[in-house]
Amino acid sequence: MKTPVEIVVTGAAGQISYSLLFRLAAGELLGPDQPIVLRLLEITPALGMLDGVLMELYDCAYPLLHKIVVTDNPREAFSGVDYAFLVGAKPRKQGMLRSDLLQQNAEIFAVQGRILNEVANRKVKVLITGNPANTNALIAIKNAPDLEPDCFAAMTMLDHTRAISQLALKCGLATTCIKNVTVWGNHSCTQYPDLHHAKVNGIDALSLVDNSWFLNEFIPTVQYRGTEVIKARGQSSAASAANAAIVHMRKIIEGTDPGDWVSMAVASDGSYGIAEGLVYSFPVTVKEGRVNIVKGLDLNEFSLHRLKLNEQELKEERDAIKHLL
C-alpha cells in the first residue's frame, strides 16, 4: 500500500465540506490507488453535527480512507498535512456585506496561517475558499513566513467554471470545446470574467457572440452567480464550490492541459501592473506543481480598467486588516 496522503478540511460539518469529503474519500483528487487520511477540523459547538458526517463516511466503507481524525484543535488538524482545504468561515448570508465577512473571518485565517507555518508539510498546498477568499489567503500567507507564498491560493475556480459553462451554453456546445477563459481579480462581484482570449473549438469566442451579450449578460451572470444561488436556495453555493475546490487542487497535482490555462488567485508578482503581494486572480498554467502566471496577454483599455477596479478593492480589503499582516 502507498503511504497515505494527509488532507485537512476545515469547517468539516458545513455545506461545502459535506459535498467535498465524500468525493475526496472516493479518490476523486488523488486517484483510485492512493489512500488518504482525512483530518476534519470544526469549532467545538459543531462537533456533534460532525459526528453524523463521520458516521456516514465510515458507513461508505471507502477502501482508500485509511484514517479519519476529528478535532477542534487546529494544531492537531494541520500536523503534517499535504493538502489543506480551508473551507471553514462564517458564511455569507443574504444582505450581508463583504466588509462584515472580512472582519469576522480575518482572525480565523491569521491563526490558521500561523499554525500551518509551524506544523504543516513544507510543500503543503493550501486552498482558501472561505470568503473573502483573496484577502483571507493574504492573511494566511503573511502569517506563514516559513512557507513559500505559492503554497497558498484562493479559489476563483468556481468563477472560472461558471464562465466556461455560460459560454458553452451560449454556443450550444460542450464545455470541453472552451479554452483560455480568464477570471481576473477578486472573488467578488467586482471580478472580471474575460473572453478576449477565449477560444471555442479554436475560434475566437468574441467572434461568435455579440458584444452586448458579453457585456450585459455574460459578465454580470458570472459576477453575481453566487448571489443568485443564495436567492434561489436560501443558502450559498455548496456542491459547485466543492467541485471547484477539487478541480483547483487536481490542476495543482496534474497540471493544466496543453494550450489552456485556468484562473487562480495567487500572490501577484507585479504582472499586468497589479501590486506585488496582493492575492489576485490571474490566468495561470501549472506544471510539476508550480503555478505560473500567464504573461504578455494583450489587454485593451476596457480590460485594464476592470483589472484596476479589482486591484483597488483588494487594496482596501488589505488596508482594513493590516493589523493581521
Task: Describe what is shown at a glance.
By secondary structure, the chain is an alpha/beta fold. The protein is 41% helix and 19% strand. Helix 4 links the parallel strand 4 and strand 5.
Walk me through what this model shows.
By secondary structure, this protein is of the alpha/beta class. It has helices at 15-25, 47-59, 74-78, 98-119, 133-142, 157-171, 211-223, 225-233, 239-254, 301-320; strands at 5-10, 36-41, 65-71, 83-86, 125-128, 152-154, 178-179, 182-184, 192-194, 199-200, 203-204, 262-267, 279-287, 290-293. Helix 4 links the parallel strand 4 (83-86) and strand 5. Helix 6 (157-171) runs antiparallel to helix 7. It is globular and about 50 Å long. The mean pLDDT is 95.
- Per DSSP E runs of 2 or more residues, the count of β-strands stands at 14
Q: State the separation between the terminal residues, measured CA to CA.
A: 42 Å
Model regions low in confidence, pLDDT < 50 over at least 5 residues: none
Oligomer state equals single chain
CATH class of the largest domain: Alpha Beta
Total helical elements: 10
The overall average pLDDT, rounded, is 95
Break the fold down into its secondary structure elements and pairings.
Elements: E1 5-10, H1 15-25, E2 36-41, H2 47-59, E3 65-71, H3 74-78, E4 83-86, H4 98-119, E5 125-128, H5 133-142, E6 152-154, H6 157-171, E7 178-179, E8 182-184, E9 192-194, E10 199-200, E11 203-204, H7 211-223, H8 225-233, H9 239-254, E12 262-267, E13 279-287, E14 290-293, H10 301-320
Parallel strand pairs: 1-2, 1-4, 2-3, 4-5, 5-6
Antiparallel strand pairs: 7-10, 8-9, 10-11, 12-13, 13-14
